[in-house]
Design brief:
Elements: H1 3-18, H2 22-34, H3 36-67, H4 69-91, H5 109-115, H6 120-133, H7 139-166, H8 174-190, H9 193-196
Helix pairs in contact: 1-7, 2-3, 2-7, 2-8, 3-4, 3-5, 3-6, 3-7, 4-8
């Protein structure tokens, strides 16, 4: 991969990682509800989980979709149903200070890593990155694409956590926090538009 293609890949990784989507909306919501430190495992799970996903998609999972196109359709609709469930959880979540700390918890590292596998935007990003920047699917190219995403993704998604944390002072009342969480849930559902109407 020459330097021009590497720069193009880094720009693609940045644009797709920092743009709104399920991961970033959930990270912003978590930052607003729990702060940066408590959201750190969620953020690291997104970055490292997605990096692993890109590598595994390039190494072999893409071939499964080539052989069994219906498997992608099943994955798509499973992802949509799960995101509606997550939108409900976001809409009904409350900050730990509200007395429901046993119920209100940010995503763990493992939960965030596993979420990548039902995140339609993550699938689109991973499949596009491999198709465009590692079309031969050789191990070296696939791992380079995954590495670039790993380097770019975590700083990009951290911006959303910081934005959410900065909103904490505005969202100090339970009413405003509930409104914010409701808006975030609606945006999470709206992020499915490209998946549902492609």
């Amino acid at each position: 991969m020459n330097i021009e293609i590497l720069i193009a890949l880094a720009l693609f990784a940045f644009a797709s990682s920092i743009s709104p989507g399920p991961n970033n909306l959930m990270l912003m919501s978590s930052g607003a509800n729990f702060g940066f430190r408590k959201t750190l495992p969620h953020m690291m799970g997104v970055g490292l989980g997605f990096t692993l996903m890109v590598a595994l998609v390039g190494i072999g999972i893409m071939q499964v979709f080539d052989l069994f196109p219906a498997s992608y359709l099943i994955l798509k609709w499973t992802s949509v149903v799960y995101l509606f469930y997550l939108a409900y959880k976001v809409a009904t979540s409350t900050a730990p200070e509200s007395g429901q700390s046993e119920k209100a918890k940010p995503f763990s590292f493992i939960q965030a890593s596993l979420f990548q596998w039902v995140n339609p935007k993550a699938w689109t990003m991973a499949l596009s990155a491999i198709a465009i920047y590692a079309p031969q699917r050789d191990l070296q190219s696939v791992l380079l694409v995954a590495l670039v995403f790993g380097i770019v993704n975590i700083p990009s998604v951290s911006v959303w956590v910081i934005l959410g944390q900065k909103l904490q002072s505005i969202l100090s009342s339970v009413k405003r926090l509930r409104l914010f969480n409701g808006v975030m849930a609606l945006l999470l559902i709206a992020s499915l538009y490209p998946v549902l109407f492609d």
